[in-house]
């Protein structure tokens, strides 16, 4: 019997709720006693204003309109990968697969569905490279949240840290408890900050400077912390629906100046993060790791050492881990943990287009 190959070159694609752009990372994985990795090349291809608008309005489309967007985005992803390969003088036949998260449009696990667009069939057709996508649906079908998916990568690639937190549009945490990997979405991060700062004509709050200069409001702080989600036990996950229908409503109906809302929101986020940190070390990644105000607030509220790695890990850890989920799919190994999603069992998620 031929042993499965233990070295892979995979392109990971990640497009998050903040719509900052498409993260592309060419990653190499090798397994001896345990998995090791390297990020060979990585970049973020920003979305045009037209693409941002189309994706922001995707949940309002007709069925036919959404299917058209799914196909168009798959082609766009494929063209982005081709440009990436050309830029770095890489040959498609030297890449084992593309592993694509897609763009989440609907996430309603309680209704037994989740939707990530960016057609894997079109992506594969445009690039000529085997493509793995739709990592969440199998878990949802098994009664899980379909999220978070990153914890298996935290376990096998970043297990030297007691906690891993990613500050993307949504902040999520992963850790071991009683020899079991646990993980869940803590709360909104860049999605809320960007929503607020856009009213000031800026795309984001660089380094958390605007929030730092604001004033704290106890009433808003208590309103945010009182929201139902923060009192639910894991497994639990967040989506754009909850932000649009609940969280943003709380901000929109508050009369405070935007800067004070940003400051108070940052205190809220730090409070929600710190209450889950007990001791040891915590790896911080995602765009929010550059928000010095958030990190200072978390450090002042917890004794856990917050470790911010090199920029390539901050920016591309999720693309790296989706590439790794693709490796596990090719190896037919578990890549989704029921201990974090609440599904009836572990599973192997991902559809393959060759």
TrEMBL record:
* InterPro entries tied to this protein: Anhydro_N_Ac-Mur_kinase, ATPase_NBD
Q: Which Gene3D superfamilies does the entry link to?
A: 3.30.420.40
From the UniProt record, which GO molecular function terms apply?
ATP binding; kinase activity; phosphotransferase activity, alcohol group as acceptor
Q: Which domain of life is it from?
A: Bacteria
* A GO biological process held by the record: amino sugar metabolic process
Q: Name one Pfam family in it.
A: AnmK
Q: What is its EC number?
A: 2.7.1.170
Keywords in alphabetical order, please.
Kinase, Transferase
The record ties this protein, via PANTHER family, to: ANHYDRO-N-ACETYLMURAMIC ACID KINASE (PTHR30605:SF0)
Q: What is this protein called?
A: Anhydro-N-acetylmuramic acid kinase
State the species of origin. Parvicella tangerina
Q: What is the lineage of its organism?
A: Bacteria, Pseudomonadati, Bacteroidota, Flavobacteriia, Flavobacteriales
